[in-house]
Batch of 2 targets.
Target 1
Amino acid sequence: MIDNSRREYFNKIREQEVLYLKQVWGSELHHRCPLESEGDLISATITETGEGVFYCDECDSIWRSNHPLDEAHADSFETFALANGRSGLTMDDILIG
Ligand SMILES: [Zn+2]
């Protein structure tokens, strides 16, 4: 059985991602995932440190916004190291947009 509150949580995140993509679509701010063809990159801020990142809405790879968006600089939510030394992120740690 699907947990309704969990589904609502992910629907809310998806809404924010779609809103962001509508704003940047067709501009130089819109990036496709460099790792596979289906994903789009979402701009976000890590609330704890203020660091800017892009993450892929399909494979959940993540890039620091000041790094090249390529395979060599891709990280994952699980291993992403914050500037304050903590490592690991969830969607609760970031603000989309
Ligand atoms: Zn991707």
Target 2
Amino acid sequence: MGSRDHLFAAAALLLLPLFSSNPDDERCLTHLSQSLSDPLKSLHNWSATTFTSPCDGSTSFLSGATCNNGRISNLFLSNLSLTGSIPPHLSNCTALQSLDLSSNALSGPIPPDLGSLLYLAALNLSSNAFSGPIPAQLGLLVRLSAFDVSGNRLSGPVPASLGNRTGNLARFNASSFDGNKGLYGYPLPLPNKSGFPGLAIVGIGLGSGLVSLMLSFIVVCVWLRVTEQRSENDEER
Ligand SMILES: *[C@@H]1O[C@H](CO)[C@@H](O)[C@H](O)[C@H]1NC(C)=O
Ligand SMILES: *[C@@H]1O[C@H](CO)[C@@H](O)[C@H](O)[C@H]1NC(C)=O
Ligand SMILES: *[C@@H]1O[C@H](CO)[C@@H](O)[C@H](O)[C@H]1NC(C)=O
Ligand SMILES: *[C@@H]1O[C@H](CO)[C@@H](O)[C@H](O)[C@H]1NC(C)=O
Ligand SMILES: *[C@@H]1O[C@H](CO)[C@@H](O)[C@H](O)[C@H]1NC(C)=O
Ligand SMILES: *[C@@H]1O[C@H](CO)[C@@H](O)[C@H](O)[C@H]1NC(C)=O
């Protein structure tokens, strides 16, 4: 090796740590890109080789991602016609401060694992097709100050850990939860009682059906008994 080669080797060693690789971010991005389908090819430069070192300090090599101290800190993937779902491994992006997947066509559940993203301050999943409950674990996110799951297909009660936060935690009003037919509880109204008349009508229908069935059964029994007695009488004669 000549001295020039030594120089190159030294330079390469010096440069290496700048292109920080992080196994957690790599796992997170790998799973995320596998779970998303990207028909408009907006994430054209999301490749496995980039996932090994997606950041150089605060420079990001991935469209839609920003970096801080060599870690993925924000994912802004709004309005890209994305389909697919959120992988639980998104929680491996442990330095994530904001996640915006709004206005896509994403579906499936919201993984409870997101409750372990300690630095998450903004979560926007609005205008998608997410279903299932809102995980109560999201209430563990003490830094969360912007939260939006409006316009999805979520159902069940709004967890008190999110709907009715206390102390220094940011509070969220109904606009964070609106537009999910199956969702109820503070700050949304309580379960819709209008379901009951419908049930009652079905009940009345079933009940009256049963009553008429029993009535016709009794009529048939009585008729059988009467004819039986008649034929007995006939035989006695
Ligand atoms: C990926 O795309 C983004 C924006 O489209 C750009 O800023 C970034 O430099 C690209 N990265 C590479 C490695 O091509
Ligand atoms: C969403 O993207 C489409 C193009 O794909 C654009 O026409 C539209 O204005 C965007 N909407 C918002 C709210 O940015
Ligand atoms: C990555 O995320 C998955 C799913 O939440 C979790 O089971 C796993 O422990 C995480 N890995 C690390 C190294 O934190
Ligand atoms: C979430 O994103 C939508 C656009 O997709 C925006 O209109 C809305 O204000 C955002 N919500 C919050 C809480 O920032
Ligand atoms: C919200 O929390 C406060 C304090 O914990 C409690 O007094 C109140 O009843 C709760 N409101 C609702 C609608 O759950
Ligand atoms: C609900 O909260 C949002 C901020 O998250 C705010 O912009 C909006 O004015 C609030 N709406 C009401 C009715 O308080």
